[in-house]
Amino acid sequence: MASSRSPDPSTTGALLDEAVARLATAAGPPGPGSHRLDAELLLAHVLGTSRARLKSHTEETRTPSERQAYFALIARRGAGEPVAYLTGTKEFWSLRLAVAPTVLVPRPETELLVERALALRREADGEVADLGTGSGAIALAFARERPRWHIVATDVSAAALEIARRNAADTGAGNVEFLEGSWFAPLEGRRFHLVASNPPYIGADDPVLAYPPLTYEPRSALTSGADGLAALREIVRAAPAHLERGGWLLLEHGEAQAAQLARELVVRGFTHVRSHRDLAGHERATEGRWASGLG
Predict the structure, then answer these.
(1) Measured between alpha carbons, how far is 69 from 42 in angstroms, rounded to an integer?
(2) How far apart are CA 224 and CA 232, in angstroms?
(3) Residue 206, domain member (yes or no)
(4) Percentage helix, strand, coil, to 5, in the chain?
(5) 244: helix, strand or coil
(6) What is the domain extent for residue 35?
(7) Is residue 263 part of a domain?
(8) How many domains does the chain fold into?
(9) Is the predicted pLDDT of residue 3 greater than 90, yes or no?
């Protein structure tokens, strides 16, 4: 008579299936990505292996301690904590970056800023600034693609700069200078060929701030003023004093803010003002050129 023995609940495949079920129960329908992707990323982190190996070795048996550590992370993920904080890393522009709750988790849509900067500044050398660098994602992507650029990355948070400097060391970026201070404050008397920033742009009363995973991220990196435009306006107004003639200002913003930000740039005296859409089709980045160079 054939055996009706149940599958081993301690195998890699069984753990993944159970984790997906737990996430579906705790978190409901998946947001970006999927419960399966989250489950695979977290198990790969616990085991110190790759997702590819998980998929090709589903019958391997896991130890009780591995199972315990894994489902502790699954419980935290089910409560909304970002996977990047659970693993301590996030990939951006093919760079593996350290992250922590003191910095915003780098988003795929922010890669649009990098793409536009590289298109606008094709020269091999140049002076470039990244304002509010956080984990250093934008600055280090620039450093990877333009090793002869001199990049200055500022942030008001000493804790964020500590992570950014660690990421610079880990990625071998030797052309990035980190300075503590708000936006242009540490850059008095300095001018740049290009300035980029992904500042906070969510309105202070936006209900989205009450929902995970945003509740786990630093609020100061998410929101700025009632309409979310306060930091963007501050950067636009101060930028001319720090741009070379013909220099570019490139800003990430919310999907409904492009028109207002474009007006701010035009009123301030910028030309060639254009907005660009991310892969989801949302207007996500707006650029302007400083023609006079007079500040």
Answers:
(1) 10
(2) 9
(3) yes
(4) 45, 20, 35
(5) strand
(6) 12-79
(7) yes
(8) 2
(9) no
> CB atoms < 10 A from the CB of 172, how many?
10
Give pLDDT tens digits for 116-139: 999 999 999 999 999 999 999 999
Query: Of the candidates 110, 108, 137, 120, which has an alpha carbon nearest to the alpha carbon of residue 288?
Result: 120
Q: Give the percent of the chain with pLDDT over 70.
A: 93
CB neighbour burial string for 201-216, b if at least 16 within 10 angstroms, e if fewer? bbbeeeeeeeeebbeb
- Go through 8-45 and write b for each residue having 16 or more CB atoms within 10 A of its CB, e for each that does not: eeebbebbbbbbbebbeeebeeeeeeebeebbbbbbbb
| Model confidence pLDDT, tens digit, residues 166-223 | 999 999 999 999 999 999 999 999 999 999 999 999 999 899 998 888 999 999 999 9
Same domain, 229 and 136: yes
Q: What is the CATH number of the domain that holds 273?
A: 3.40.50.150
Length of the chain: 295
Pull the structure tokens for residue 41.
């990323």
Task: Give backbone dihedrals phi and psi of 215, rounded to 5 degrees, phi first.
Answer: -65, -20
235: number of CA atoms within 13 Å, CB side?
A: 30
H helices present in the chain, as ranges = 12-27, 35-47, 51-56, 64-78, 83-87, 111-120, 137-145, 158-171, 230-238, 258-268
283: CB partners within 8 A, 6+ apart: 253, 255, 257, 258, 275, 276, 277
Q: For residue 138, give both structure tokens.
A: 């934008």
